Amino acid sequence: MNIENMQKVLLECYSKDLCYLKVQDDWNESNKCFGMCAITSLIINDYFGGDICKIYVDEISHYFNLIDDKIIDLTSSQFNHEIDYKDYQIMGRQKILIDDTKNRYNILKTRLIKALLKQVDEKVYSCKSCNKLVDKFPNDATVFLGKDNDIVLVGEAPANNGWRKSHRLWCDINGKVLPSGVVLQKLFDIIDRNIFETTFLESVKCYPLERKNLKTCSSNCKNIMLEQLKILNPKLIITLGEFPTRNLLNFKFNKFADVVGNIYEVNGYKILPIYHPSPISPKSYNGNIPIFKELREM
Description:
12 strands; elongated; 298 residues
């Protein structure tokens, strides 16, 4: 992910309903950045850090980003003259994220995430790294987007009879909730969340024809998984089982039980490994209960 691609995708996401309300009637397709500075600066701050800055241009508030002492202004083209950035004020996110701006930001963020994930899925569907080892994932997206991305679940690989065939997460082709989904929902009840409203992706994007191929497929899919997580930018990643955990932790461990239930900070993410919720695992429910009780208190 880079700012140049981000700018291109943002331009595709802008529309009149996202324009600052007071000037919305003046927005048009030939000046798509018009009235988008505040919500754009928030998005750039999400992904690239730095500061959000405010100045006045033609007596109008204008927001841009300052990253490593470099001015990043993705909406400067809305003005037909050069901008003098010298008298800027650094703004806190919460001062900007109010009322109409907060609503417009949330809509833009959702559109942007979907568009960026679509770019990654195009890589998935054109990938040939595991051709003889897998069946391709036939759905139109390899990430299920929930209500928010505070918690993102990372599974092992698509099940043979799961959402790759039913097109509904955690369900078989007849719409019945899979055993793993039943167990996971019981655990999610502890933290008062719904698995069907929680963002989910797989460590392996396609269906491995044999379980022995999981290690190879996990390795081949790792960069794609990391790219998806960077787009989602979750507050907490819960890994379901050993393979996604090994893919995300930056250290080697011998026994999976040694890392289960601990929260690790890796590359800016908080990662919580749990036992896989499949009933095949003897600890799928009882072994995870203490983890979710502790999570509830956090």
